[in-house]
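3.2 Worked example (two chains)
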Amino acid sequence: MDLSVIIPFLNEEESLPELVAWIERVMNANQYSYEIIMIDDGSNDDSWEKVIQLSDKNNAVKGIRFQRNYGKSAALNEGFKAAKGDYVITMDADLQDSPDEIPSLYEMIREGNFDIVSGWKKKRYDNALTKNIPSKLYNSVTGKMSGVKLHDMNCGLKIYRKKVIKAIEVYGEMHRYIPVLAKWAGFKKVTEKPVAHQARKYGVSKFGWERFINGFLDLASIMFVGKYGKKPMHIFGFWGIIVFFLGFIIGIYLTIAKIAFHQYNMTDRPLFYAAIVCVILGTQLFLAGFLGELISRNSHDRNTYNIDGKIGLE
């Protein structure tokens, strides 16, 4: 199979038939073998019924339905696990991502031997104050912190080699940072391509201001987990030793001061309590490193979601 198209959605009953018909036209015109995996993230409208109807007409349309809303990251993660195409395309269901971009993205990732080609919406139809300006700030900070330089990190339209999406886990709100996750997994050939941005035709945006705060918190998590997720003792143990040693040195100083210089009433000196705090905190950090090692080596069900139904998938 050439392509898997993964489409997470929430309450998009109006746009789904039009989007699928558009994708079908593009795929047939280019003679691609494909599948469309649609993930219903707990919709409370008739979106799932639309997916059933679309699958009845075209067996390349497949679906996954969550029992409740888990978020876009969870939907993408399940789609990634189900995808069978050699290359995997993600796009939003609101018709703001154009399926006409698929052939050029497919050609670019194959000819350039890239791991990821990310869409870049240079001309946007979003509100400048609530979306465009915050997005530019977000992309700038993310690029400096992660080393992955993209103008539009959060663009939903991307294409991946299959080995990339099979090697990463997407959870929480980390769908915004899939290129960063891929980098930490060893896939560093990432580029971007300007793509068309369509004005929203149906419904309303599902994202608010809180996504920027959550986004930066998730970036901090990714940076930490990416560097120390497999070796938590290296961070907790290091600082535990530093803090414990500081407390130990203070304790030695106070002991020498009392014995050699006959300075009594050690408990009246603030340094005495600082030494105790450092020793206790250093020990706790060191133990946290051990616990982190145990957790990282035994965690196996972090991405478990209750799925209400599937179409065309085992």
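3.2.1 Second chain
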Amino acid sequence: MSALELILRAASSLAMLLVLPLLVGQTEHKVMAHMQGRLGPMYAGAYHGWAQLVADGVKFVQKEDLVPAAADKRVFRLAPMLAMVPYLLALAAIPLHPGYAAVEAPASLVFVMAATSIGVLGTLMAGWASANKYALIGALRSAAQLLAYELPMILAVASVALAAGTLSLGGIVEAWSPWWLLWQLPGAFVFLTAAVAELQRPPFDMPIADSEIVFGPYTEYTGLRFALFLLSEYAGIVLFSLLFAVLFLGGWRGPLDDWLGWAWTFGKGFLIALILIWLRVSWPRLREDQLQRLAWLWLIPIALLQLAITAVGVVL
């Protein structure tokens, strides 16, 4: 690979991280405005509230960057970056078009799952370093949530990898067939549920829970550092939506995929992102015990059953 090609691939991955989360954020503004009758996102900037996202950006830039006196300042400042960078690395390995990914790795599925597991460390560091009891409670909830939902997600992903016979995301797309929409449906449900929990979005937003613990791990953050956490959440939506499209919906597979493969990947990912936004608007927050019960008593058994069914199907 030439130096120019390497630079172009890195630039394309960075552009995805900077542009796609903003598009998801703008879409969420619009969907929530329509479903909840919110006036600001519908009228800010005249035509259909196009300037709402710009206004939010200006607001964050103008806010003062404060660090609590008792905080671990080095960890406090590092946490927002650690929350963002893993999603950049993971997005680089997602195949968007036949034969194209910013980073092509033989076991790209393992690389992506490892990177997404690191992302939650930013939340843990933010809560611990803030020297705030509400932030610490939110960080502990994040740790419990990560432990509970990482396992069913890995099991669901393992089922797809077993069905395809490869750990390469591109190989999984090549091995995919429409039959998987039924065969891997329980695993798809488990993966999507676990992804929402990993992102700490409603109805799994107990680590944030503004009505209980102010804003959880992010209570002491202001300005651009706070905006980085929000941007990392939308980057996570983009990543898990595209990953779901690649694993369970065939990625770039579709009519004229030699030319329109990238459009199929983005279109399927955008559909999943809309589902995640709809869940935020429609479902109430669970209790902490309900969250743990869902993971350990339902999702993990379903994922294990799916893995067993896949193994039988592959052998037969």
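3.3 Remarks
Residues 37 and 125 are 36 Å apart (CA to CA).
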